[in-house]
Amino acid sequence: MKQIIILSFIAGLFLTTSCSKEDLNERDLVNKWHLIEALADPGDGRGVFQKVESDAIIEFFDGNTVRYSNSFCAEGNSVNTGIYSSIENKIYPDCNQDLPLSYKIESNRLIIYYNCIEGCAEKFELVK
């Protein structure tokens, strides 16, 4: 019986370590990310991410600060800095808007959701 428990433990340990694909998670957020896709829904809910050619980089720093080479804010504001909360998964741009931006890491991509009437978001990949 003792051998079965030990073998089960070893098999479980092997399976959990051998199946991981080095998926990115919240700890990987503090990095540089490159814009690769954008979503701008026309209002009917059928919008999909489209590839973009861009040099835009967003960088998350220790100390909960973030800098984006594009602007976080609409209406011609060129604000590209802010703070983020990895607990809330929110970015608070320095442009005095009341609504924070949401983000998540999914399938090794960072997705930032903007506050649009129609859906709009940007997808980033980790800069290596």
UniProtKB/TrEMBL annotation:
Entry protein name: Lipocalin-like domain-containing protein
